[in-house]
Amino acid sequence: MLQSAWYIIQAIMTTESITITRPDDWHLHLRDGDILKSVAPFTAKQFQRAIVMPNLVPAITTVRQAVDYLDRILAAVEGTDFEPLMTLYLTDNTPAEEIVAAHKSCFIKGVKLYPAGATTNSDDGVTDIHRCYPTLEEMQRAGLPLLVHGEVTDSEVDVFDREKVFIERVLIPLIDTFPNLKIVFEHITTADAVDFVMESGPRVGATVTAHHLLYNRNAMFDGGIRPHHYCLPVLKRERHRRALLEAIASGNSKFFLGTDSAPHAKSRKESDCGCAGIFSAHAAIELYATIFDDIGALDRLEAFASFFGPDFYGLPRNNKTITLDKIAQTIPDSYPMADQSVVPLMAGQTIPWKIKSNHDK
Ligand code: NCD
Ligand code: ZN
Q1: Residue 260 among the catalytic residues
Q2: With a 6 A CB cut-off, is 86 part of the ligand 1 pocket?
Q3: Is residue 61 in contact with ligand 1, taking CB distance under 6 Å?
Q4: Which residue's CA is the closest to the ligand 1 atom numbered 5?
Q5: What percent of the chain clears pLDDT 90, i.e. is strictly above it?
Q6: Whether residue 29 has its Cβ less than 6 Å from ligand 1
Q7: Domain ranges within the chain, ordered by starting residue
Q8: How confident is the model over 253-265, as pLDDT tens digits?
Q9: Ligand nearest to the CA of 25
Q10: For residue range 149-185, what is the model confidence (pLDDT) as tens digits?
């Protein structure tokens, strides 16, 4: 009896923990309605702010729609101080005046470029970037970042090459035309994207997801087809995963945290045409801590998760903290989501880090 109490005390005393400035998620899907109510609290419990993607149906293309969506998100996280940072969905016809209004609104922090048909709910996306040039001109003037889903949709291009081809066909010409436009290359997956971001000027940054750091493409075919490891951009080869790990370990401020947590009901993933998207909001910061710890770069986690993002967006860093303990936790097989369920990343597996508490600095 006494002995076991001693072991418990020892375990508490020797638990490794880290305290970092409260992080932000610079790429997040919160959905709407009852799904929003189910998933938003996961994010609010660990992140201070999040850039909320606008790919609802219908898409959030106007400031008016963004205000209403913001209200629904705030209702879903009532009782927390979570701050949603809203985005507009760029279409072929987004008027430059909408950008002016977005900039004035103060709560819209970016405009999302989805090439039409590239991913979930992207049917209203851009068919030809040249059509958006007057709008991009206005964004450049306003300093409003363009958030890019960087994949071509050309069916002739192999699905594993779509990011690389997008850099060549779209991003390089775009930067030539708009050298002062702030661009976030979202959820990068390849060594090509890492090189491109590093070689570009200070106005080009990138978000990196936990799942692209944790897994290579084998994870989609591990003993059978694994729909819960299917997302877009799709997981890539091991050498690309290693390039992403090197990028975050390097402490380069162009790379920052963006989960791309994208919940879909279990039944919509486990289907003959399963949706793209991985839900990681349930344990996002713990997963990133696990990754940084694994590569011996835990001291670089805070800057990646809490400094580089706000610095890029020109926003203040948070002044609260979050503490993580090196205590194992087992991820549930699923979580309730509206009247269905969602399968989280690493379902049923144990990860070594766990959030302790939030408190003022
Ligand atoms: C996202 C979704 O489900 O909204 N899916 C995904 O695989 N990441 C859309 C996106 O960001 O591509
Ligand atoms: Zn996304």
Answers
A1: yes
A2: no
A3: no
A4: 277
A5: 92
A6: yes
A7: 21-320
A8: 999 999 999 999 9
A9: 2
A10: 999 999 999 999 999 999 999 999 999 999 999 999 9
Task: Choose the residue to mutate in 260, 261, 273, 280 for probing ligand 1, maximizing ligand atoms within 8 Å of C-beta.
Answer: 260
SS (H, E, C) the chain: CHHHHHHHHHHHHHCCEEEEECCCEEEECCCCHHHHHHHHHHHHHHCCEEEECCCCCCCCCCHHHHHHHHHHHHHHCCCCCCEEEEEEECCCCCCHHHHHHHHHHCCEEEEEECECCCCCCCCCCECCHHHHHHHHHHHHHHCCCEEECCCCCCCCCCHHHHHHHHHHHHHHHHHHHCCCCCEEECCCCCHHHHHHHHHCCCCEEEEECHHHHHCCHHHHHCCCCCHHHCCCCCCCCHHHHHHHHHHHHCCCCCEEECCCECCCCHHHHCCCCCCCCEECHHHHHHHHHHHHHHCCCHHHHHHHHHHHHHHHHCCCCCCEEEEEECCCEECCCCEEECCEEECECCCCCEECCEEEEEEEC
Instruction: State if residue 260 touches ligand 1 by the CB under 6 angstroms criterion.
Output: yes
Q: What pTM was computed for the model? A: 0.95
Running along the chain, 361 residues long, what does each successive block of 10 average in pLDDT? Answer: 64 83 98 98 98 97 98 98 98 96 97 90 89 97 98 96 98 98 98 98 98 99 98 98 98 98 98 98 98 98 98 98 97 98 98 79 45
- Which of the listed CATH numbers 3.60.21.10, 3.20.20.140, 3.40.50.10330, 3.40.50.720 matches domain 21-320? 3.20.20.140
Q: Which atom of ligand 1 is nearest to the CA of 55?
A: 4
